[in-house]
């Protein structure tokens, strides 16, 4: 593994407040319905138990069925540990009433020797989907990637999650070089977008 990739990821992971430090919060904050969205930033290890249960409940609401039918299956304990990992960082979106309406969790990682921002989860409450909020959070991740010298933003999507595939394609994400081939028999795709 190139020393530089490891060093860059270590440095980015140690930042307490990277989005604030580099002023890379998205400039787009108004939904298509005219609501102004605000964002909270935190390490997974600093989420309260109550906030974590909200995160996990929204994950289950949006994804449980998809995981149950996937080749990975659904293992609640391992998913909980994954979301609360020490390297997980959260962006939580709030509506004008201050209610939590969605989140993304990401990590800085070395993937196939390349420093990347991995968008681990992106979950929006069903009643707030398709209003531009997911796009706002991707925009922040892309700006953050540029400031921390990560080479791309990556994500993994089930092949049968058409709305999510459509969403990422719309935002310029394409099949990553590490994406399983069409004849692999695997049920997910790895998408990425290079940091400008
Ligand atoms: C996928 C998800 C994160 C997207 O966030 P969102 O806030 O709903 O998305 P946005 O409103 O920012 O953007 C939606 C865009 O994707 C486009 N889109 C949605 N479904 C699409 C499809 N099937 N084909 C093409 N484009 C599609 C919309 O046209 C829209 O584009 P526009 O803003 O130019 O009109 C959100 O809908 C969600 O939480 N879904 C359920 C959980 C999930 O699947 N998460 C992703 C796991 S990988």
Automatic annotation (TrEMBL):
| InterPro entries, per database record | Acyl_CoA_acyltransferase (IPR016181), GNAT_dom (IPR000182), NAA40 (IPR039949)
Entry EC number(s):
2.3.1.257
Domain of life, per UniProt, equals Eukaryota
Which reactions does this protein catalyse?
A: N-terminal L-seryl-[histone H4] + acetyl-CoA = N-terminal N(alpha)-acetyl-L-seryl-[histone H4] + CoA + H(+); N-terminal L-seryl-[histone H2A] + acetyl-CoA = N-terminal N(alpha)-acetyl-L-seryl-[histone H2A] + CoA + H(+)
Its GO CC terms are: cytoplasm; nucleus
- Subcellular location, record wording: Cytoplasm; Nucleus
Q: Kindly report, in one word, the top-level EC class recorded for this enzyme.
A: transferase
Its family remark reads: Belongs to the acetyltransferase family. NAA40 subfamily.
List UniProt keywords, sorted A-Z.
Acyltransferase, Cytoplasm, Nucleus, Transferase
Domain N-acetyltransferase: from-to ranges: 50-196
**Protein's UniProt name:** N-alpha-acetyltransferase 40
